[in-house]
Amino acid sequence: MVLGGGASRGFAHVGVIKALEKQGIKADIVVGTSAGSFVGALYAGGYDAMALEVIALGMEQGQLRDVTFPDRGFVKGELLQDFINQYLDNRSIESLPRRYAAVATDLQSGAMMVFNRGNTGMAVRASSSIPGIFQPVNIAGREYVDGGLLSPVPVRVARKMKPDLIIAVDVSRKPESVVEIRDTLDVLAQTITIMGKESSQTEMREADVVIRPDVREIGTIDFAARKLAIEMGEKAAGESLPRILALLKEKRQRKPESASQGNP
Question: Could you give the CA distance from residue 181 to residue 219 in angstroms, rounded to a whole number?
């Protein structure tokens, strides 16, 4: 499962997971960017949809936002890192029940960085550090910012992990569909969306299924719309279920044939 970036719209990922779990569908591999890395880390850590919804509806912005004197960002991000690590009992990425990867951008080189081992909270923090708002995250002497700059919906990263089926969830607002740009965060989020639009569209063509919740009305930091985002995610996933179930059935039917032919 590939969970894309989208700030508060990322709560829709919880609804998608909820709809899939109702049909007994659970991902073995989770890859996320920005908000998707946040939800994805908790999901990879063993939290089911019900638990994710409880966490989402119970959290407050203050739990994640440690405002500081604006050096290279207004938010340090340490609270976000600690939040994830606390819920995961400080387990490293390689210790999580599901295979997990978070995508970030190397600020110096402009290259994509895939975190698939090490401190889970720090990886989520790096993946979620919107430039100009969050301070860059220093890991092993390199500085990282939001993965959405390069890979808003990191399907290719997931493809390299060799899954049977890739379900991608796009919670971005298409630039042309934005109703209102309300504040500085919306400006930055819109800029990131525009920058990643072409690469995102190209990558998503490589997914088996793309789920697009209708989150156009939800702002970048609209925590009050969490419940709506979850509902929109569940609705969109429900509409995609016939195709997902058909593809899963097809994959299962192919496996015995491959085994009988001696294929890996």
Answer: 8
Strand, helix or coil for residue 242? helix
| Whether 137 contacts 126, CB under 8 Å | yes
The H or E element that residue 81 is part of is: helix 78-87
CATH topology of domain 2-260: Cytosolic phospholipase A2 catalytic domain (3.40.1090)
**Candidates 8, 127, 146, 186; catalytic one:** 146
Which of 161, 167, 185, 186 is CA-nearest to residue 175?
186
Give residue-wise pLDDT tens across range 208-262.
999 999 998 888 778 899 999 999 999 999 999 999 999 999 988 887 654 444 3
Alpha carbon distance 113, 189 (integer Å): 20
Catalytic, 34? Answer: yes
Catalytic one of 34, 127, 172, 240: 34
26 vs 17: CA distance, rounded Å: 8
Q: How far apart are CA 14 and CA 226, in angstroms?
A: 10
